[in-house]
Automatic annotation (TrEMBL):
GO terms for molecular function: short-chain fatty acyl-CoA dehydrogenase activity. InterPro entries: Acyl-CoA-dh-like_C, AcylCo_DH-like_C, AcylCo_DH/oxidase_C. This is Butyryl-CoA dehydrogenase. The keyword Oxidoreductase applies. Gene3D superfamilies: Butyryl-CoA Dehydrogenase, subunit A, domain 3. Residues 118-221 form the Acyl-CoA dehydrogenase-like C-terminal domain. It holds the Pfam family Acyl-CoA-dh_C. Its EC number is 1.3.8.1. Residues 8-67 form the Acyl-CoA dehydrogenase/oxidase C-terminal domain. Keywords: Flavoprotein, Oxidoreductase. It comes from Nonlabens ulvanivorans (Persicivirga ulvanivorans). SUPFAM superfamilies: Acyl-CoA dehydrogenase C-terminal domain-like.
């Protein structure tokens, strides 16, 4: 049971993320089938219904979202995870002058890993300030917990995709992982957009005036691409692979 408890946060994150990805995939599947997608004669209707229950059972996604952040905050309060010091460091960074150095992004996905580091600062900024403001009352601010949880989930999933792709590149080559690189970049791009929205909602719920302006500036700094990839081209890279093979082409790791 100790092992299960140790990874309970990751379990909640994965339950929410994967059940919603399944739902979105089957929904896109219905769209691809067009009118027939809506009919029980085509397989997508059942796929969508089967996916729908996963958002409800084994703890609804709303409850798992709140659990993920709630458990993390509890671990931090018990001293099992050090959130306070990194959160304070981000607080100090907000009032300091940003670095204007041009980083070296020559390694594949290194800019993306740099973005992940910045997104973690967004989580620390929002969750750290929320804990400071509300203390043990945080549990009552459920909408704020849900927003913080979406930030946590998106960071976890985007980082996992990038790390997995980096591993695959080391095992094979950049060329062989072209589509996986594109998918990781696309995932990160959509994660950044979700995080921008959810962090903005969270910040506006507990900060006003100068403090709010400073945190929103921090949010802008921590979600800014130095080189925004060509999003449409990335989608084309993935679509070309699927249409080229005329089947699901990503069964191999
Ligand atoms: C096909 C199927 C199989 C199942 N199998 C099992 C099983 O094997 N074992 C088992 O124990 N159970 C099983 N269940 C039960 C399932 O786990 C529950 O349906 C689920 O936990 C949700 O509980 P509920 O239906 O009482 O909804 P409620 O708890 O009443 O929730 C209703 C809605 O309100 C939301 N909500 C509730 N509280 C909050 C909150 N504080 N903030 C935000 N939103 C909130 C929920 O997310 C949900 O969307 C099954 C259910 C189904 C439909």
């Amino acid at each position: 049971m100790k092992g299960v408890e140790e990874f309970a946060i990751e379990c909640s994150i994965l339950k929410v993320a994967v059940s919603e990805d399944m739902q979105n995939c089957s929904d896109e599947g219905i769209q691809i089938y067009g009118g027939m997608g809506f009919s029980a004669d085509a397989p997508m209707e059942a796929a969508w219904r089967d996916a729908r229950i996963s958002r409800i059972y084994e703890g609804t996604n709303e409850i798992n979202r709140m659990l993920a952040v709630g458990m993390l905050v509890k671990k931090a309060m018990k001293g099992h995870v050090n959130l306070l010091e990194p959160a304070m460091a981000v607080g100090n960074e907000l009032t300091s002058i940003p670095s204007f150095d041009t980083p070296d992004f020559s390694e594949p996905l290194s800019e993306e890993m740099d973005m992940i580091k910045k997104l973690k600062k967004v989580f620390l900024m929002v969750a750290g300030s929320a804990v400071q403001k509300f203390g043990t009352e945080l549990e009552q601010n459920q909408q704020l917990l849900l927003a913080a949880s979406d930030i946590l989930i998106e960071i976890y999933m985007a980082e996992s995709a990038i790390l997995r792709t980096q591993k695959n590149i080391a095992r094979t080559s950049v060329e062989e992982q072209k589509e996986q690189i594109a998918m990781s970049q696309l995932y990160l791009y959509s994660a950044v957009k979700i995080i921008q929205n959810r962090a903005e909602e969270g910040i506006s719920s507990f900060a006003e005036g100068d403090e709010q302006r400073m945190m929103l500036m921090g949010l802008k700094r921590f979600t800014k691409y130095i080189n925004l990839p060509n999003i449409i081209e990335l989608r084309n890279v993935v679509a070309d692979k699927v249409t080229g093979e005329n089947k699901y082409p990503f069964t191999k790791a």
